[in-house]
Amino acid sequence: MGSIENKSISDMRENILCIFKDFMTGITKIDELGTAGSRLLIGFQQALEYLRRPPIEGTSELIDNIIKANETQRVKMYIEAGCRNSLHGVQNVNKTDNNNFHYGKYVHMEVNSCKLGLLDHNSKAKVIVEELEGLLDDVTNSLQRTDGNLLLISEKDSDDHPIHKDTEGLALSDSQNFDVTQLAALMSIIYSMVKQDYLMQEKIVSALNLKSSSGELESYCLLWSLRPFINDDIIHQAWRLIP
Questions:
Q1: Backbone phi, then psi, for 2, in 5-degree steps?
Q2: Structure pTM?
Q3: Burial class (CB in 10 A: 0-12, 13-18, 19+), 183
Q4: Strand intervals (E) in the chain
Q5: 16 near 142, Cβ under 8 Å?
Q6: What pLDDT, in 10s, does the model give residues 138-167?
Q7: 227: left (phi over 0), alpha (psi -120 to 50) or beta
Q8: Collapsing DSSP states into helix, strand and coil, what is residue 36?
Q9: Using one digit for the tens of pLDDT, what is the confidence trace for 51-71?
Q10: Residue 94 half-sphere exposure, CB side, CA atoms within 13 Å?
Q11: Which of 112, 150, 186, 193 is least buried, going by the fewest C-beta atoms within 10 A?
Q12: Cβ atoms of 128 and 186 closer than 8 Å
């Protein structure tokens, strides 16, 4: 009877380890998604700042010669629109002036593209966060079914492997010598960090519009890249626990 129970516990530990690997794979996906989102946010910032540029000074002979020598379709559209401030062109896209309409549409397109990309980022990130929550629930349910009978995953003496403490005070080992209850606690900490980071990104995307100030955009980009809720030391600890 005891051997059957031990086998059941062993199978449960293996199952939890598999779930943990899937969990960390999800962390990788959301990291990659966040990097792509950062590029979109920077693109939005740059496009909006471009829209705010003042008109080209057309009375200068030097500038006039440069324009004539580099009269691409993009420059031509700007000149035909009267070398006006780009935001003026955006504000007049519904007016009858055909040149203004096409120029305003052109300069506005990149901003819209980046905003749509960020909204798509939020949708994908939400799915991954929900998957991480589901995996955490699976581990919690598995632990509850063992009635506290789970043993150390490694059968070696714990003195053979030095234990390190991360910044949250959770005792972990660089080897496989740890209790799966600690593994569940680690997953819970990481999930909490990732969810807070996702909620921050969601708020940033929701706040973006044509009236966002340069200071706001700079702060949004900085927060997104810094990921203030993510503790890299804990993430690195988690990766070292995967066999």
A1: -65, -40
A2: 0.72
A3: buried
A4: 163-165, 171-173
A5: yes
A6: 998 888 876 555 443 333 333 443 333 444
A7: left
A8: helix
A9: 787 666 656 677 777 777 776
A10: 1
A11: 112
A12: no
How many helices (H) and strands (E) in the chain? 8, 2
Residues whose CB is less than 8 angstroms from the CB of residue 236 and which lie 6 or more positions away in sequence, other chains included: none
Sign of CA dihedral 231, 20, 26, 130: negative
Q: How far apart are CA 164 and CA 168, in angstroms?
A: 11
Query: Tokens representing 124?
Result: 């994908």
Structure tokens at 223: 């927060």
The whole-angstrom separation of Cα 205 and Cα 37 is 10
**Under a CB-based contact definition with an 8 Å cutoff, are residues 50 and 86 in contact?**
yes
Chain centre to alpha carbon of residue 140: 26
Rounded distance, CA 106 to CA 89, Å?
A: 10
Backbone φ and ψ of 171, nearest 5°: -75, 125
